[in-house]
Amino acid sequence: MAALGAAVLALLCLGVGPGLGPGLGPGRAMAAVPLVIWHGMGDSCCNPLSMGYVRDMVQRRIPGIYVLSLRIGSSLVQDVENSFFMNVNDQVREVCSQLAKDPRLKGGYNAMGFSQGGQFLRAVAQRCPSPPMFTLISIGGQHQGVYGFPRCPGESSQICDWIRKMLDLGAYTQAVQEHLVQAQYWHDPLKEEDYRKKSIFLADINQERSINETYKKNLMALKKFVMVKFLNDTMVDPPISEWFGFYKSGQAKDTIPLKETLLYKEDHLGLQQMDKAGKLVFMGVEGDHLHFTEEWFYTHILPFLQ
């Protein structure tokens, strides 16, 4: 299958393997670096049409690689539900625990997040440096958040309609923040003060309230931070959030790139230093949110995993 179809990749946005190969020894190759992947909204760890398909693509080209597709909850149904309704900070803590207990990851790993899984894995990098994350690949992740919810998997589903209603009524109320995942990376440029004070997840990992030097140090330890933006994205508002840009404060029309933000200029996260060191990779791909071909994946993403 040359391309992942739109219906399949829509599952990714709302976004396990064999053991390691032989270790070092006389005449033996080094084992492949393990890969951890985190799905997006409305998806699950092991859907054969989404995360399972991505896992298989990687394993076909890197024999023996260990791929851990993260599951939050005791079942696939819970995994899907938690992508909508579980406190993101609790999810990150759960993932950090999973990674720390997995003996196959003790030497370090690469990470790849799809849609909201991109910013969630960045939180893992910032908060949980052991085991070490080497390269973070964010595919359609919204690192400055979103201000709009134009569509989500199953456009007519009651869940999507309910989420829109909750965000409109009060994204920054305590109850909504604690129980609705999408509210936790809702970034209202017209209510910046509310966002900074009341966002329980994104404002924290983006150093909006105070500077956590540990977050900065841990993120800067990455060898590469790859950010993939979909150039025809109709789901993420604004799409430039996928490259750490956002709306100018106080309005919701004009956007600014990362280098014009205070986050970059004052280097709250170390992104400026990482950029100057060649650690940041900004990659654009034609297509709507998470629509890409196998050929593109193998050509542009696979090299960061080898």
From TrEMBL:
Q: Which GO terms describe its cellular component?
A: endoplasmic reticulum; extracellular region; Golgi apparatus; lysosome
Enzyme's top EC category: hydrolase
Question: Which InterPro entries does UniProt cross-reference here?
Answer: AB_hydrolase_fold (IPR029058), Palm_thioest (IPR002472)
Subcellular location, record wording: Endoplasmic reticulum; Golgi apparatus; Lysosome; Secreted
Q: This protein's superkingdom?
A: Eukaryota
The record's section on SUPFAM superfamilies has: alpha/beta-Hydrolases
Designated name of the protein: Palmitoyl-protein thioesterase 1
The organism of origin for this protein: Phasianus colchicus
